[in-house]
Inverse folding.
C-alpha cells in the first residue's frame, strides 16, 4: 500500500484566484520558494512537461510546486503576465524572480537549481 503514497503528487493544482492567494501567502509566510507551471490542456508542449514537473516537485521537498491552467484561472495568468505556454515562474515572497518560457527541461532544471540555491543562501 506504500506505493500509493509515493505516487501522490507533490504538485498543487490551483483552481481559483483564492486558491492561488492562499498558497502563495502561506508559502511566503513560511519563507518557502514557489515554482509555478502555467499550462493549458490544448498546449501539447505544456502537457508533455507535466511528468517532468511532477518529478521536479519530488526532487525539491522544500519548494512549493503549483500548476495553473491559464484557461481555468485567467486572473492569475494575467496578474503574472503569462502570455505563452508553458511558462515556468519562480517566486519568492510572492514576487516573480525567474521566468522560463517554453518546454526546455534542462533550462528549467538549471534555473530551479540556481533559484533554490539562492533562496537557501538568503535564508541562512
Amino acid at each position: 500500500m506504500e506505493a500509493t503514497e509515493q505516487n501522490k503528487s507533490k504538485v498543487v493544482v490551483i483552481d481559483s484566484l483564492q486558491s492561488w492567494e492562499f498558497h502563495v501567502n502561506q508559502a511566503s509566510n513560511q519563507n518557502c520558494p514557489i515554482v509555478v507551471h502555467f499550462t493549458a490542456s490544448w498546449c501539447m508542449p505544456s502537457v508533455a512537461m507535466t511528468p517532468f514537473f511532477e518529478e521536479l516537485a519530488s526532487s525539491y521537498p522544500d519548494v512549493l510546486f503549483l500548476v495553473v491552467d491559464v484557461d481555468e484561472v485567467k486572473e492569475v495568468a494575467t496578474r503574472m503576465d503569462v502570455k505563452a505556454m508553458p511558462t515556468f515562474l519562480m517566486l519568492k515572497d510572492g514576487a516573480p524572480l525567474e521566468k522560463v518560457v517554453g518546454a526546455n527541461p534542462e533550462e528549467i532544471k538549471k534555473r530551479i537549481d540556481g533559484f533554490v540555491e539562492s533562496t537557501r543562501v538568503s535564508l541562512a
User: Anything to note?
Assistant: Residues 33 and 92 are 5 Å apart (CA to CA). Residues 1-7 have pLDDT under 50 and may be disordered. Residues 105-123 form the longest helix (19 residues).
